[in-house]
Amino acid sequence: MQSNKTSSGRFFEHFTLNEVINHATPRTITAGDVALYIALTGSRNPLHCSEPFAQSVGYQSAPIDDLLTFHIAFGKTVPDISVNAVANLGYADVRFLQPVSVGDTLSTSSQVIGLKQNSNGKNGVVYVRSTSVNQHNQPVLSWVRWVMVHKNDANAPAPETTIPELPAFVAADQLSIPAYLTTGNFDQQATGGQFYWEDYQTGERINHAAGLTINQSDHSLATRLYQNNARLHFDAHLMQSSTFGKRLVYGGIVISACRALSYEGLENAISIAAINAGTHANPSFAGDTIYTFTEVLDRWELPNRNDLGALRLRMVGIKNMNPADLAETKQFNSYHPNVVLDLDYTVLMPRKGNK
Amino acid sequence: MQSNKTSSGRFFEHFTLNEVINHATPRTITAGDVALYIALTGSRNPLHCSEPFAQSVGYQSAPIDDLLTFHIAFGKTVPDISVNAVANLGYADVRFLQPVSVGDTLSTSSQVIGLKQNSNGKNGVVYVRSTSVNQHNQPVLSWVRWVMVHKNDANAPAPETTIPELPAFVAADQLSIPAYLTTGNFDQQATGGQFYWEDYQTGERINHAAGLTINQSDHSLATRLYQNNARLHFDAHLMQSSTFGKRLVYGGIVISACRALSYEGLENAISIAAINAGTHANPSFAGDTIYTFTEVLDRWELPNRNDLGALRLRMVGIKNMNPADLAETKQFNSYHPNVVLDLDYTVLMPRKGNK
Amino acid sequence: MQSNKTSSGRFFEHFTLNEVINHATPRTITAGDVALYIALTGSRNPLHCSEPFAQSVGYQSAPIDDLLTFHIAFGKTVPDISVNAVANLGYADVRFLQPVSVGDTLSTSSQVIGLKQNSNGKNGVVYVRSTSVNQHNQPVLSWVRWVMVHKNDANAPAPETTIPELPAFVAADQLSIPAYLTTGNFDQQATGGQFYWEDYQTGERINHAAGLTINQSDHSLATRLYQNNARLHFDAHLMQSSTFGKRLVYGGIVISACRALSYEGLENAISIAAINAGTHANPSFAGDTIYTFTEVLDRWELPNRNDLGALRLRMVGIKNMNPADLAETKQFNSYHPNVVLDLDYTVLMPRKGNK
């Protein structure tokens, strides 16, 4: 008997401007998630793995890695937003609004803030602002992404084109900084880093030495942990007949790998306050070795905080090639084939003088 | 100096009718187990990953996935029961008696309830009923399985043949349903499912779209987490000289994969109440992509519960082939070579009308 | 703009006798670490996975596996000590001073206790004593290791040669045994072992039957969990141009595999009190299947404890070869090519007579 119980998911014509979609599977963060995140990335930031260190800078308990929050929240949007996506086109205005700790439960919803059918009539771009709230209904993360989504019915009428205005970056006075965050007891022995906010110069480029090879199970475990069910990461049988002939690595894996690899040189970057923009320039596959370099885009003072500053950074992920060997990330306006990530983000860092 | 400290384990002639075997390694469930189970399966059932959702349906704390309980309990029986098994022949009368949460400790024992030497004189079938109890000595899981076990001494006398009577299924009035389970606040936004008990029809077949490729590390990690030490899953050197030339995937991995893959279409199935019967129709190996379809076998009302019903389901696991392409699971009484699992189980689901 | 933010790490000429190096990233142990350790090794010792069992032998809460403590503490020393190592030459005087449980935070430091430049002038041997303390500043682990480290500047002057005196083994009266450890309720059903201290004979060799194939993700996950950032374990791109052409497995993975594999035959070995000496005889790679045998080197009574004894054991790790097939671990003073580990360590075990 034919069943009506499965759905092929939303196609472009199913999205309506301004509608709000509540995503399934609220998720309580556990100590197991934190340990797995370390095992998957090798992250060494003491804020996320040392309770005494977290307490020394004012937290009641260690917050989880900002990117773990991002991936778990993001994963919940996939079944409703991007299950029929042709491509994830970009991120903007990603704001980390409040720290998340073990025991917190995240619930996520998305609002459609833009629609534009492509001229081929076969697909279109959907813009959503997603928000994840904790069990107290406080927003912890808000972000915009836009994806190209297939039409199921080519004859479905095109919606009115609406393209949201998005900020080029989250301005310094828009960053959410916990009032309790204090740097008076900041212990650089715990981070292993000797450089503070003042030590970074706009234009400075840090070629991080370490590389990380992505194994097949690594990325599968991570993506499943995030309950991100995009088929192209899990289903080798399906992907045999795709352009690439094999599974793709979830782009968030690359972001986390680059962030962990860039620890050396950015040890005192306490947390991520915002992601301003992001592009997955080329796909990654199991077996690729990821490297990264960081470029300092800007250095901002923060309102009412003379102990803490912000650094706007560009983190470029490169596969199978040392960052020192890559002079230009783009050639004729298109990315070098080994560039896999171009992310513009903002971190908080203690100031040497006033902490 | 020759050591007497290792044992080659029990062979067929070492089992005695009615004897009780207490298995080693009591196991306390942790938040780490729960996170790993999500990472290994991609399970999205909010009952197991959201404390607020679990509380909204009456649980004091989120219960772990029923299959995680099963695998951990099952694993403890392997060193004593099936280390010299030729094959796991089947399961029956698997009853989930009480939810298990983080902090509970499971201890498992088995009673031999049947013995039958095969006519070749080289092996025989052992039937055991295994029971796992929590730290309060309350049974949480009880199941029967039968395995074909090698004889070590072909001249050992055959035991009297005893074949236990096993129920074809666990009847509705035998299902254990927590008295505190309540569906009044059941939130279908949390599950993402719109279908309730009344919406399912006997004979209905749901072809679940998602597939999951089993990586080598995935199944190794899972089987070790369950402390199941069956050599054929871990020892590639040993398995080179086996019929298959490589490691086999623990059958429980396939059960969990199918259960997670069948989430879409069964979102409101709160928990598993029983496994009525199960067969691993063909072996699986790393690299296989698992798909599944579900057939609704029956729909039962439950005594004293008009807010909740039971669905008896058949979950068929298929490798490297879309379920929609498989019309018949058997040909001439033997399984299609791509069918890897045929499981008859019972879930609890809220009733639309009375919840 | 050239950045000064990354460092190529310490070379031989950067170590000074007696200097103390405080390592970054204090680490709070979580339930996630414990679950991952089981998933990575298959360990079945109930002391580490059953709260009731741990309490039955006097612990307030289950201690983590001694080797998990070792790997996490060891990992912290890598960025400062061995990032430019040619080879890890050995361990000695490894003392497990106090049990570690979930919630404890480990901080690690090292003192340089010996230096010897090699006659080639290109590298030298650095001896360090490392100590890990918990959040109460109580030492939980202390160990000596020596590594051969590259010189960066071949013209840097050689330091005065100092070679520390190291004990051949940690003597019985030097072992740290928790005063609260009690064996009166020791439950051999929980361990599955029937042999006690008195049952082991000096010279006895136990060939453990089980083997464990190391998958690529397994060892990567473990090494990252320990926050050990030695590049040769993670960076396949880099290692393509190495002697071996591929990534090496962190030696600690092999130690843990052997310890878990040797459970059968040593079930009642409660905990590790010391590692007396250790050598990684040959490298291991993903795909290798690890086997092990144990030789009883000595059997010691313990001062003031007639319920507990110590066994000094030799644990030999072998790859891709059954232990029963290896008569001699060395030929002409060099290790058989399949021998990967030769570890001399001491365990505590209840005495049959007096427990």
Automatic annotation (TrEMBL), chains A, B, C:
<protein>
    <submittedName>
        <fullName>Uncharacterized protein</fullName>
    </submittedName>
</protein>
<dbReference type="InterPro" id="IPR016790">
    <property type="entry name" value="Thiol_ester_hydratase_Rv0216"/>
</dbReference>
<dbReference type="InterPro" id="IPR029069">
    <property type="entry name" value="HotDog_dom_sf"/>
</dbReference>
<dbReference type="InterPro" id="IPR052342">
    <property type="entry name" value="MCH/BMMD"/>
</dbReference>
<dbReference type="GO" id="GO:0016829">
    <property type="term" value="F:lyase activity"/>
</dbReference>
<dbReference type="Pfam" id="PF19315">
    <property type="entry name" value="MC_hydratase"/>
</dbReference>
<dbReference type="InterPro" id="IPR048274">
    <property type="entry name" value="MC_hydratase"/>
</dbReference>
